[in-house]
Write a structure and sequence with these properties.
Length: about 110
């Protein structure tokens, strides 16, 4: 029997989603050690001493990314200009070719 011939199973309707008040009541009633609150909490607080070092490293990484972005932007701009020039050259060559073809066709007629 093909899958088209099988009867379609009708699922029961879904219950209505909880209201905002019900959600807030549920969250307020949950204990602090509930997995919802502890799943994303860091297990050990980070040491405050390496923070300055991490901040400097992060700033250097952001600076390097910014430099790479500016360099890539310049390269893309130059590539766009070159592409525009190539397009214009091809368009002019196409126009000349059409003119040559029309002249050759007129000459043979």
């Amino acid at each position: 029997m093909s899958s088209k011939a099988k009867k379609r199973v009708v699922l029961p309707t879904r219950p209505a989603p909880p209201t905002v008040e019900q959600i807030l009541e549920d969250v307020r009633g949950a204990p602090p050690q509930d997995p919802v609150f502890t799943a994303l909490a860091p297990e050990d607080p980070p040491d405050p001493s390496p923070r300055a070092e991490d901040s400097e490293i992060q700033q250097e990484q952001i600076y390097q990314q910014s430099q790479a972005y500016v360099a890539m932007n310049d390269r893309l701009r130059l590539a766009g200009d070159a592409l525009r020039q190539t397009f214009d050259g091809l368009r002019q060559a196409g126009q000349r070719l059409e003119q040559d073809i029309s002249q050759a066709t007129a000459a043979t007629s």
